C-alpha cells in the first residue's frame, strides 16, 4: 500500500521523492542538483542520466564529472553552469525539444556501499505558444 501526497511517495520503510521541472521547447532549462562541499576533499564524481536512478552509476549517462570538471557529455546541449567545486552540479539543457521530456537522475558518487546521493527529476516540456493577437501589422 502507498499514499501519494504532493510529489512524495510513502512506502513502508522508505521515502522516495520526485521533483517536477517545467521547460519550454526551444528554451533552456536547469535541473537542480547540489550537495554540501566544505573542502576540496569532499568533492565527488557526479553523473547525470536519463531515467530513474539505478542501484549504481547512471543509466543512459548524458554527463559525468570527476568532482572538479565535466569529463564527458553526450551532447553539447548538456552542461553544468553552476560552480561544480562548490557542489552545484545542476544540469542545464539548451534548446529543449519534446524528446527531452521524462525522468533524469543526478547521482553524487560517495565512496562506500549505498552512500551515493540520488535525485530523480521529472522534466515536463511544454510547446511555446505564439499569441497572434499581440502581433501588429501596418500596410502602407
Automatic annotation (TrEMBL):
Name of one Pfam family that matches: V-set
Xref: PROSITE patterns: IG_LIKE
Protein origin, superkingdom: Eukaryota
Gene Ontology biological process terms from the UniProt entry: apoptotic cell clearance; cytoskeletal rearrangement involved in phagocytosis, engulfment
Subcellular location per the Swiss-Prot or TrEMBL entry: Membrane
Annotated signal sequence range: 1-17
Keyword Transmembrane tagged: yes
Keyword Cell membrane among UniProt keywords: no
A cellular component term, taken from the record's GO annotations: membrane
Gene Ontology MF terms: phosphatidylserine binding
Residues annotated as domain Ig-like: 12-122
Assigned keywords, A-Z: Disulfide bond, Glycoprotein, Immunoglobulin domain, Membrane, Signal, Transmembrane, Transmembrane helix
InterPro entries: Ig-like_dom, Ig-like_dom_sf, Ig-like_fold, Ig_sub, Ig_V-set
Main location: membrane
Topology with respect to the bilayer: Single-pass type I membrane protein
Gene3D superfamilies: Immunoglobulins
Family according to the record: Belongs to the immunoglobulin superfamily. TIM family.
Name of the featured protein: Ig-like domain-containing protein
